[in-house]
Design a protein that fits this description.
CATH architecture of the largest domain: 3-Layer(aba) Sandwich
Number of strands: 13
Strand order of the largest sheet: 2-1-13-3-4-5-6
Shape: globular
Strand content: 15-25%
CATH topology of the largest domain: Rossmann fold
Number of domains: 2
Distance between the termini: 11 Å
CATH superfamily of the largest domain: Glycogen Phosphorylase B
Number of helices: 14
Order of helices and strands: EHEHEHEHEHEHEHEHEHEHHEHEHHE
Oligomer: single chain
Structural class: alpha/beta
Largest sheet: 7 strands, parallel
Mean pLDDT: 86
Low-confidence stretches: 10-18, 356-361
Radius of gyration: 22 Å
Length: 366
């Protein structure tokens, strides 16, 4: 298996992204044109990336091409035609309906997906509602659901990591930020960007009626978390950690925040990584009352849901302060990475066997 793609930025690397040695990276020359020709730079970058990926991957003659983004789809489409490879489209979100995507970007994304749809042999995505959207709007397609589950040890248990702390008991975050014992510690994981409910969380924890502390663990602080941490003693900023350390770190908190805003169709239907990281850390969650998130939280007893306005969040936080909150005791096997990886492996085996190919056939990832 070989991966081919654009070189990751320093900020992305801070997420702890796994980068195996068999990854071919390159810089886009057309990226330098953004400063002078911003309107056409994206289109030129797409053309350049497609040509360079096809040239690199064509030499490998892959049997399967797995595209992790719609930008890689044109390259995969060409390889499927020229090299008769099986094309897998891994839509990590509802790509054309993402938060922050311009109208032109949304149109381009949907155009690419529609153009390549007929050549896609397998559709992979992270949520059942997102898969349904693609099937209903672009046409029936063989598909497989692969949730954003973390890899935990022992990965075969299907159970949350056993916690040794009681609610509010002193732990790592209490020691690091000099927080008194008995103080509930809330945690937020991921990018500190707009659309993640962070502004409302900051507003709530600024209020004198809230005695809990909140720690933000992540990257790309675009909403001023660092400034708030410098001004308010119960708001803290912790640097991002590698993926393999996230679940262990989350164990040191009392409640995870998964307050996604309903600002796009992709957000409305999402099942974000942090929801499963909290679950397998054995930490209950305060989550948005969005369809898929609420369904999973309710089905597996992961915590409670609330509306996304500041008053509703404050009411939920204060209730948790008074009454505590229980971590899930459900069997999480269906949510585990072991289950997701088996599902994806079976889909690959079905693809390969359908073409008379062996499981050891070469796979290219774009």
């Amino acid at each position: 298996m070989v991966g081919i793609g654009m070189r990751m930025s320093d900020e992305s690397a801070a997420e702890g992204t796994y980068k195996p040695s068999d990854v071919i990276e390159f810089d886009l020359c057309s990226g330098a044109l953004r400063r002078w020709f911003p309107r056409i730079a994206s289109y030129l970058s797409l053309v350049e990336m497609t040509l360079r990926m096809v040239c690199r991957a064509g030499l490998l003659r892959p049997s399967v091409v797995h595209c992790h983004d719609y930008w890689a789809l044109p390259a995969g489409w060409l390889l499927a035609i020229l090299g008769k490879a099986q094309l897998v489209y891994d839509a990590h979100e509802l790509e054309s309906e993402r938060n922050g995507l311009s109208r032109r970007g949304s149109w381009l994304c949907l155009l690419i997906e529609r153009w390549c749809w007929g050549r896609i042999a397998l559709l992979v995505s992270v949520g059942p509602s997102i898969l349904s959207w693609y099937q209903q709007n672009l046409g029936p397609k063989r598909s497989v659901l692969v949730l954003n589950a973390p890899v935990v040890a022992p990965c075969s248990s299907g159970q949350p990591i056993s916690r040794t702390r009681n609610f509010g008991e002193r732990g790592y975050f209490h020691d690091r930020f000099d927080v008194p014992a008995g103080t509930p510690m809330f945690i937020y994981l991921g990018g500190m960007v707009y659309g993640r409910g962070i502004e409302r969380v900051l507003e709530v924890f600024r209020r004198s009626s809230v005695r809990s502390h909140v720690v933000f663990v992540g990257y790309s602080d675009k909403v001023g978390v660092g400034k708030h941490a410098a001004l308010f003693p119960n708001i803290h900023l912790h640097p991002a950690v590698p993926h393999e350390q996230v679940v262990q770190l989350v164990r040191e908190a009392d409640c995870g925040l998964c307050l996604i805003e309903d600002v796009s169709m992709s957000d409305r239907l999402c099942l974000p990584n942090k929801l499963f990281e909290y679950a397998f850390a054995g930490v209950p969650v305060l989550a948005s009352r969005l369809p898929e998130i609420a369904r999973v939280v309710g089905e597996y007893g992961l915590g409670i849901c609330c509306d996304n306005d500041a008053d509703s969040i404050e009411a939920a936080v204060r209730k948790i302060e008074r009454e505590g909150i229980e971590a899930s005791r459900s069997d999480l096997t269906d949510l585990s990475w072991e289950t997701q990886s088996k599902r994806l492996q079976q889909a690959y085996l079905s693809l390969l066997s359908g073409r008379g190919l062996s499981p050891a056939s070469k796979i290219g990832r774009c």
